[in-house]
Amino acid sequence: MEIVTLGIDLAKNIFALHGVDAAGKVVLQRPAVKRAKLLELTASLSPCLIGMEACSGAHHWAREMTRQGHTVRLIAPKFVAPYRMSGKRGKNDAADAAAICEAVTRPAMRFVPMKSIEQQSELFLHRARQGYVEQRTALINRVRGLLSELGIVLPQKADTIRRELAKLLEDLPGHCNTVVADAITDLERLDARVGEYDRHIATCAKANADARRLMQLSGIGPTTASALVASIGDGHDFASGRQFAAWLGMVPGQYSSGGKQRLGRITKAGDRYLRTLLILGARSVLQSGKKKDDAISRWTRDVEGRRGYWKAVVAMAAKNARLAWAVLRRGEDFKLYGQKVPAGA
Fold this sequence. Notes:
The chain is α/β, with parallel strands linked by helices. It has 13 helices and nine strands. Strands 3-2-1-4-5 form a five-stranded mixed beta sheet. Strands 6-7 form a two-stranded antiparallel sheet. The longest helix is centred in the middle third of the chain and has 34 residues, at about 175-205. The protein is globular and about 80 Å long. The N and C termini lie far apart (about 55 Å).
């Protein structure tokens, strides 16, 4: 029988496969396929629907199997778990492959956008930059913790800490001076590295027409524009801007029953990095909007007055997410607040 749907549980070296025919009958069960044999096996199959969890290496395998003529869909692991027949206590590779095979056929299933080599290359810059930022934050917190043992309590603001450390250095006793001096050197190195990656990302954003159009939106700069393009491409995996905002976790969680709606805090599901960038951009919009009189600034001031600062920030971030989807999906035909965005802007 011909395989119509194939579920693949990915791993580093050993993969599990579960394939069914048009009637849903299991016609392929391979609980241990070696890495070197995976593409050889999928190449021997007729074009079919292949489902995989979105994990390390998933985009690589998806690109390779797409070249073989298959239709590949990537699913977030949390959406696969409910289809595992053996439940939480019966988790193994074969059960996961069967669950993926079932989940990928669901008509309402949400899939992860498959990324091209170019998109992943650009995301390399973002992941590396974020790693250096985290190292810098950890270093600053470590120095603050050490100095607090000497009764020196520094504020959390990074620029203030850089300034104060240079003043304190000469007065520190013994090896404390050596440790803090080395920390200052490492901090300067990390600052330089983050700045270097900022320039790489800005160059990528300026070279991409979609990213340039995104930067027309208030609160979206080169870093956010580049990350959006690299993460979702032209946005074709989302039916609407609202669905994209929900994918980012910027919609309220629902606890509704019996006809009574109960809306909670935002779900915070999806890509935390994109959500963080949009939130930071929204904060800048609210800050600068206090002195402006455009439509967005008036809207944010109205929301802030009615619902408070942080809800206004999230509302602005969600609006930017929806607008960003429209920019990417419609391209040059997108109109920003009644004005057509110039081609290649």
